[in-house]
Each structure stands twice: as structure tokens, then as C-alpha cells.
User: Which sequence fits this backbone?
């Protein structure tokens, strides 16, 4: 059974930083790929960042230069370092493994971790 457990969210002031973590069981991120998503209130879930199998990273324009995604293969854990946070970054953040998609849809999602950016 595939499970994702995200953690590290919280309340932070604009300009602050947070580091999110995601531990997976049932799959290996270095084999199935790695990605971060977020869903803000009233909006659809959106892609935030991805790490290719070879380690190259890609980011949504809205977070480029502020967020850094990384992966610890030994611990099968993803990280998302978020700096210079803005109120519009407020969302529930999720991780996933793109190569687990079936018919273009993810079959598994974790509970996510809430990030709130507010003064």
C-alpha cells in the first residue's frame, strides 16, 4: 500500500521560511519520481515543484527562486525548502510520485500539511 506523510507546515509571517518533509511507504521516490503540489482554499490543486529521476529540479513560475525541492534517497524522503513566503503561498501542500499515475490520475494522496502565511 502506498502512503505519503507530509509534515512541517505551520503559520509563518510574510518573508519567513518553512521546510516541508514527505515520507513515502510502498514506493521509492528515486524510481517513481517526486513532486510537490498545493491546494489553496477554493482553488484546484496545482503543481509546485518536481524532481526528475536523475535529480534535475523544476519549479512553477510562482515559486521559482524562492522554493527548493530536494530528495534524500537513503531515507526515501522529500523536502521543500520555502523561503520569502508570501500570503499567496497559503495552501495545503502535498507530495506525490508522478510515475504512480494510472490513466493520468494519481491513485494516492497523503493528508497534506497546512501552510499559512499571514501577519
Assistant:
Amino acid at each position: 500500500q502506498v502512503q505519503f506523510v507530509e509534515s512541517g507546515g505551520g503559520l509563518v509571517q510574510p518573508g519567513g521560511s518553512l521546510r516541508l518533509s514527505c515520507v513515502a511507504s510502498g514506493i521509492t521516490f528515486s524510481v517513481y519520481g517526486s513532486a510537490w503540489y498545493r491546494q489553496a482554499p477554493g482553488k484546484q490543486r496545482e503543481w509546485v515543484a518536481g524532481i526528475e529521476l536523475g535529480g534535475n529540479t523544476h519549479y512553477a513560475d510562482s515559486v521559482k527562486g524562492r522554493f527548493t525541492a530536494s530528495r534524500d534517497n537513503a531515507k526515501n524522503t522529500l523536502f521543500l525548502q520555502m523561503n520569502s513566503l508570501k500570503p499567496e503561498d497559503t495552501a495545503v501542500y502535498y507530495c506525490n510520485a508522478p510515475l504512480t499515475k494510472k490513466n493520468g490520475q494519481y491513485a494516492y494522496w497523503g493528508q497534506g500539511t497546512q501552510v499559512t502565511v499571514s501577519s
